[in-house]
Amino acid sequence: MRNFIILFRKEMKEGARSGKWVWLPIVLMVIGISQPLTNFYMPQILEMAGNLPEGAVIEIPMPSGEEVLIGTLSQYGTIGTLLFVLAMMNVISHERQTGALAFVMMRPVSAFQYMASKYVAQLCILLISLAASYILTWYYTNILFDHVAWTLMLASLAVYSLWIVFLVAVTLFVGTLLRSSGGIAGVSVVFLSVISLLTTLLPKYMEWSPGNLRAEASNILLEGEWGSSATLVSLSTLALSVLFFGLAVYMFKKFERFGE
Amino acid sequence: MLVTVKNLSKTYKKHIAVQPMSFSIGKGRCIALLGPNGAGKTTTLQMLAGLLVPTTGEIEFAGNMDKDHRTQIGFLPQHPSFFNWMSAAEFLQFAGELSHVPKKQLARRIEETLAFVRLEDVKNKKIGGFSGGMKQRLGLAQALLHEPELLILDEPVSALDPAGRRDILELMKQLKSHMTILFSTHILHDAEQVCEDILMLKDGNLIWNGTLAELKQENGALAIKLQTKEPIEGVLEQLDIIEEVEYVDVFTAKVLMRNLADSNELVQTLLQHGRTLIHFEWLQDSLEDAYMKVMGK
Fold this sequence. Notes:
- Chain A is built from ten helices and no strands.
- In chain A, helix 3 packs parallel to helix 7, helix 7 packs antiparallel against helix 9 and helix 7 runs parallel beside helix 10.
- Chain A is elongated and about 75 Å long.
- The relative contact order of chain A is 0.13.
- The mean pLDDT of chain A is 90.
- Chain B is an alpha/beta fold.
- Chain B folds into two domains: 215 residues, Rossmann fold (3-Layer(aba) Sandwich), CATH 3.40.50.300; 77 residues, 2-Layer Sandwich (Alpha-Beta Plaits), CATH 3.30.70.100.
- Helices cover 32% and strands 28% of the residues of chain B.
- Chain B is built from nine helices and 13 strands.
- Chain B has a six-stranded mixed sheet with strand order 5-6-7-3-8-9, sandwiched between helices. Chain B has a four-stranded antiparallel sheet with strand order 11-12-10-13, with helices on one face.
- The radius of gyration of chain B is 24 Å and the shape is elongated.
C-alpha cells in the first residue's frame, strides 16, 4: 500500500510536469463546448460559410438540452476515445524503453503495486478532465438551450465514466504486450472500435458490451431513469475492466527483464 | 558468506546467455566480474539484482529466507536512465521511499549521499540536463541510499572520461571498507586497483573464481628482462631452468622462468659466459597476462 501511494504520487507529479494535467482538460473542454456552441450558432455558421442563394430560409429545429448533451457524449466516444488512448499509450512502454523502469523494479515493488499506481493515476487524470469538460458543456447547454437537471447530468456522466474505466484497463493491458507507443495506440483503438462496432451490428448478443455505455448514458438523459440494462452493462464493464487489469499485471510479471 | 549462488543460468529461446554457475560472495569483499563483451556479465548482475528472472538456480542471502532480496541490494545499471523530469534530490527521495528508508533517516541519507558523490550543488536541477558522469554518480548515489549490504555496479566506469572514471574508482575505494561490492568491467586495470576477488566469464561460463593474488600466481609465470653489453644469444638456450626465451633485439631478451628461485643461476650463467649484464628487471605480472591465459584456456 505504501509503495502504491509513493508510485501514485510520482505519477501525479509526472502528469503535472509533462503538462498532461493542462492540455488534456483544455482539449476535452474545447471538444465538449463546441457541441452546444455549433448547435446554437448553426444557422449563422451556414449563412457565413455556405454560398446560399439569396432569400434561402434555413430552419433548424432547436434541439433540447438533453439532445445537445447526447451529441457531446458522441463526440467523447469518437475523438475523446482516440485522445484518451493517445494520452496514455506510453505510460509503461516509455519507462520500459528508456530503462527507468529498472530503477523502480530494483526496489521492493510488486507488479500489482506498479500497475495499480499507473491505472489509478491515469484514471484520475482522464476522469477529472472528462468531468470538467462535461460540466462546462452542461453549463453552456443550460445557458443556450433548455435546462437539464444536474442529477441527470451527473448520472449520465457516471455511466459514461465506466467507458473510461474500461478504456484505461484495455490500453494498459495492450501496453504490456507491445513495446512501441504507436502499436499500443493502434491496437487499443482498433480493439475499442471493434467492440463498439459489434455492439451496433449484433445488438442481441452484445447486451453486456461496454460499447452500450454511451447509449445507456443517452437513455438516462432522455428517459430520466436508470434502466435494468444499464445495471447489466455497468456490471459487465466493471468485470471486464478487472479482467483486463488482472491480465496486465500478469503480463507485467512475465516481463523478461526490466532493464534496457 | 553473504550471498550464495547455486546453479544460476539464463536461457533465451535458443540462446544460452549464462550457463549454470555457482559461486559465493564473502561479506566485505570486493569482487570484479571480468569477461569480454557478450560474456553474460550484465545478465548475471541483473539476475542478482532481481531485475531478470533466472531460468534455473537460486540466489540466497545469508539470514534472509525471503525470496525477495531487493532491499539488501543497491544496483547501478550499465546505462542509468532516470526520470528526466525529476531533480536529483526528488529522484533520491522517490528511490529512498520505495526502499522503505525511514523518513527522518532518508533526509539525512540524501544529504550524505549527494555530498559523497559531489552532486549537492545540482541537487535541485533536472536530471535531464546532467552529463554522463553526473548521471553515473547519481546512479551510484541511488544505489547507496538505503545502505544495502551488497552493491552491484554494472560497468560503472566504461562510459566515462578519464576524470569521471577516477572519480568513481575513488568512491568505490572508499565504499569498500563498509560494503560488499560486485562490479563488472572489461577494463582490467580498474579491477586490479580496487578488487581482491575475481570472477571471469567467457561465453556464459564461469571460468575463474578466486582471489586476484591466486589468479596471478597460478597463471603468470615469472618473467625477467635481461640486457647485456655483448650479444646475448647463444647462452640462454642451454639452461633448463628457463621455460621460454623471447629476443627483443640482439642484446635484450625476455625470459620466462619456471621457478623464482633460479634467477640467481641465470645471472651466474650469463657472467660465466662473459656477458656483461647492464639491465636486469623482474617484469611484474600484469592481470592482463593472467586474463589472457585464463581466457585462452
